Amino acid sequence: MPRSATTPAPIPAPTRAPAAPRSGPSPQARGMAALLVTVTIWAAFALSARALSASSLLPADAALLRFGVPLLVLAPALWRRRRRIAAVRPAAALKIACGAGVPFFLAAMYGGSLTSAAFVGSIVPGMVPLFVSALMVAAGRGLPRGTQAAGLALITAGVAALVWRYVVPVDTDVLAGAGLLLLASGLWALYTVGLKEVDLDPVGSIGLLCLPSFAAIALLVLTGVLPTGLASAAPTDIVLFLVVQGLGVGLCAGLLYAYAIRRLGAERSSAVGSLSPVLVVVLAVPLLDESPTLAVLVGVPLITAGVVLANRRPRT
User: Fold this and answer.
1) CA–CA separation, 23 and 242 (whole Å)
2) Which of 148, 190, 236, 258 is the most exposed place for a label (fewest CB within 10 A)?
3) Cβ distance 115 to 178 under 8 Å?
4) Which residues, including other chains, have CB under 8 Å from residue 273's CB and lie 6 or more apart?
5) Angle between helices 128-138 and 294-310 (to 10 degrees)
6) Share of the chain above pLDDT 90, in %
7) Which pLDDT score, from 0 to 100, does residue 278 have?
8) Taking a C-beta distance cutoff of 8 angstroms, is the pair 263, 27 a contact?
9) 46-75: string of b/e by CB count within 10 Å (b at 16+)?
10) Distance from C-alpha of 296 to C-alpha of 221, rounded to nearest angstrom
11) 178 and 122 in contact (C-beta within 8 Å)?
């Protein structure tokens, strides 16, 4: 049929230019890089917990830096999220504030001052899967099975290997420190469960943790309950803990770990994160002049393998 003079000719579809090849690392490579930095920061936390006993800072001073620096850096972003933070249920907010706030921090710091970096790096993160499983069982989720149960058994055996030599003969300082580290690990498990109950992004979660924690530690210092030596502390110690605890643990670790989970998945991130105890033992030799004992050489690999198995999801 002939086309009329008023009928417009069809417009040819535009041809798309070939997509330019992506430059730079892949999302998986960026996620792995973020995770490796996070593991290094976790190791630095364990090393700083042990180094605090030899520094001019007191635990309260380190806590002020740990919770105050993220609040200062993230102040504008936290102000924009103030309504969502205030809307969090009190029970979930209490789990987060206690689980990773002042009680956890003081337990980890005092426990580290009585033991070693290997104890902090192994017991605190290593026992978390066991405590989380206990909380899940208490909530009626059922007992762990298969590789998860085997992983929890290896974690228990690894911790027992670490502390056994201090039971006979009894070393009260080390056992008390190990007990504080177990308390810190249980509190961190409570924090892990609490994070699942809130609808906040990583920045909001950091604010929910640091706001009440900084207020609590500041109140304890101002009332004289906890002593402080921040005014007379050595500048090098202040800078070290500001970088490691404030910027590293308080700010970067939370943001980078959340990014790594989104890129790699929780299972793969947990498996790589289990290398933190090994890294702590390796770095403690040149940095803190700690020599790994036979108990450490046996216990740390058991805990690492147990964390890997405990974080594996059963295939269906």
Assistant:
1) 35
2) 236
3) yes
4) 35, 38, 39, 42, 125, 257, 307
5) 40
6) 40
7) 86
8) yes
9) bbbbbbbeebebbbbbbbbbbbbbbbeebe
10) 36
11) no
For residue 257, the number of C-alpha atoms closer than 13 Å in the C-beta half-sphere is: 24
Residues of the chain with pLDDT under 70: 1-24, 265-271, 273, 313-316
Q: How many helices (H) and strands (E) does the chain have?
A: 16, 0
∠69-93-207 over CA atoms, to 5°? 25
Closest CA to 259 of 38, 25, 22: 38
Distance CA 207, CA 210 (A): 5
219: number of Cβ within 10 Å: 12
* Total-model pTM: 0.81
Q: How far apart are CA 197 and CA 223, in angstroms?
A: 33
Cα–Cα–Cα angle for 179, 185, 191, rounded to 5 degrees: 145
d(C-alpha 242, C-alpha 55), whole Å: 13
Q: pLDDT tens for residues 224-238?
A: 999 998 889 999 999
- The letter for the amino acid at 28 is Q
Q: Where are the alpha helices (DSSP H) in 139-275?
A: 146-163, 172-195, 202-222, 235-241, 254-264, 266-273
Percent helix, strand and coil across the chain, each to the nearest 5 = 75, 0, 25
Determine the angle formed by the axes of helices 172-195 and 117-126, rounding to 10 degrees.
Answer: 40
DSSP 145-169: -HHHHHHHHHHHHHHHHHHGGGTTT
Cis peptide before 14 (omega within 30 of 0): no
User: How far apart are the C-alpha atoms of 99 and 20, rounded to whole Å?
Assistant: 47
Nearest 10 degrees: CA dihedral of 12, 13, 18, 24?
150
